[in-house]
């Protein structure tokens, strides 16, 4: 099986770099890095990000514990949009707090 997330990684890094330019603290939480490293990311040129992005495995990993994922998948399988929205809203709040 071929695993190549390079193009996805590049788009992700560019987006997080742009966020880091505006608010390094938010970028740090998104990346799971100390704020000073997110501050460094804000200054990295796109060509350098492209080199980093050549890592074939995804730089973005799913977050949340198994209970959260179970709740989300159950709501999706039961076609319960209110529960899906509630789970996603809770995840967003938890990430940015």
Explain this structure.
The chain is mainly α and 97 residues long. It folds into 2 domains: 6-52, no CATH class; 66-96, no CATH class. The protein has helices at residues 6-22, 24-31, 35-41, 46-52, 66-77, 81-96. Helix content is 69%, strand content 0%.
Instruction: Please trace the helix and strand order, writing H or E for each element.
Output: HHHHHH
CA-atom Rg in angstroms: 16 Å
Question: End-to-end distance, in Å?
Answer: 38 Å
Q: Percent of residues in helical segments?
A: 55-70%
Strand content: under 5%
Domain count: the total is 2
Q: What would you call the shape?
A: globular
Number of helices: 6
Low-confidence stretches: none
> What oligomeric arrangement do these chains adopt?
single chain
**Largest sheet: number of strands, sense, barrel closure:** none
Structural class: mainly alpha
What does the average pLDDT come to? 89
Count of DSSP E strands? 0
Q: How do you describe this structure in short?
A:
By secondary structure, the protein is mostly helical. Helix content is 69%, strand content 0%.
């Amino acid at each position: 099986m071929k695993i190549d997330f390079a193009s996805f990684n590049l788009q992700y890094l560019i987006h997080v770099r742009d966020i880091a330019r505006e608010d390094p603290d938010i970028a740090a939480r998104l990346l799971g890095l100390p704020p000073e490293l997110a501050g460094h990311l804000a200054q990295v040129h796109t060509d350098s990000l492209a080199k980093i992005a050549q890592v074939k495995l995804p730089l973005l990993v799913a977050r949340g514990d198994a209970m959260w994922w179970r709740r989300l998948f159950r709501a999706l399988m039961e076609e319960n949009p209110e529960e899906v929205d509630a789970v996603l809203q809770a995840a967003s709040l938890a990430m940015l707090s």
